[in-house]
Amino acid sequence: MYICNCNGLRQRDVARSIEAGAIRPRDIFASHQCQAQCAKCVCDMRRMIQDATESYAMAAE
Ligand code: FES
Predict the structure, then answer these.
(1) Whose Cα sits closest to atom 1 in ligand 1?
(2) Which fold has domain 2-60?
(3) Residue ranges in 1-61 assigned as alpha helix (H)
(4) Mind listing the pLDDT tens digit for each residue in 19-52?
(5) Atom nearest to 42 CA in ligand 1
(6) How far apart are CA 54 and CA 43, in angstroms?
(7) Which of 6, 9, 10, 48 for a ligand 1 pocket mutation test, highest count of atoms within 8 Å of Cβ?
(8) Cα 29 to Cα 50: distance, rounded to the nearest angstrom
(9) Given a cut of 90, is residue 13 above it in pLDDT?
(10) Ligand 1 and 49: CB distance under 6 A
């Protein structure tokens, strides 16, 4: 499933960037050497970052 159609970023690409330390959509774009274009994907990216952050917090408890 594509998260960012403009840059061809799939869900697994975004997840990999988050696992590697991306904490903002800008970091995700940078890790794939691209930039936001229409920015429609930014909300989905933020949601994935938030979900991952919550998962890490729960795992640390
Ligand atoms: S869908 Fe990601 S920049 Fe357009």
Answers:
(1) 4
(2) Arc Repressor Mutant, subunit A (1.10.10)
(3) 11-19, 25-31, 42-60
(4) 999 999 999 999 999 999 999 999 999 999 999 9
(5) 2
(6) 16
(7) 6
(8) 17
(9) yes
(10) no
